[in-house]
Model the fold of this input.
Amino acid sequence: MASVIPFDRATRTSLPPVPVPRNAEQLDNIKAHLDLILLALESLTGIGSEAMLQSAQELHLSGLSDRVNLWRLRQASPLRKGQSGRKKLDVEEARSLVLVSCHLAQQHQRTVRHAVGVLEQFTQQERPPHEAPILGDYLDRFCNLYYDRMQAEEETPKALTALALKLLIDLLFYSGDNGAKRLWLALIERSVQAPRS
Done:
């Protein structure tokens, strides 16, 4: 049995009503992926909690009003060290994180497009991505933040690099006009997969 996620027509970006699984593991996967999307944005653009809270204010999302609440939401990811955030996914909070993530991705769309373009170029040339300054910096920051914040004892640099590059490509899709809808639907699809897939 699944509940249906409502969407607020008053916001700039409406999200389609889709069924959300009640299974705790599936809901944890949604929280994990939202946190990883924000981690990728942080790593690529250097933004922090202030930019996230500013976006929430611009989108009139009252649920993300302060640093403590934002920290608790992100800390609820099952991948995080010392999870002390909320264990149950709140639909409105997930919706808010989707809107904030895509709003920020759109604000930094030029950077995202440039990074993905360089990745395509280096892939065609069969050159390691980390040799490109923008990608090298991104990968270093992503891996450092991941090891610092996540339970990453078994994660290899190769696996984290692959994850970071996949998230970078995802950001390109989420930075478009329909980015929030894309991410919202992708979260439901990913919810039945492994937390990092």
The first strand starts at residue 2 and ends at 4. The chain has one domain: 21-190.
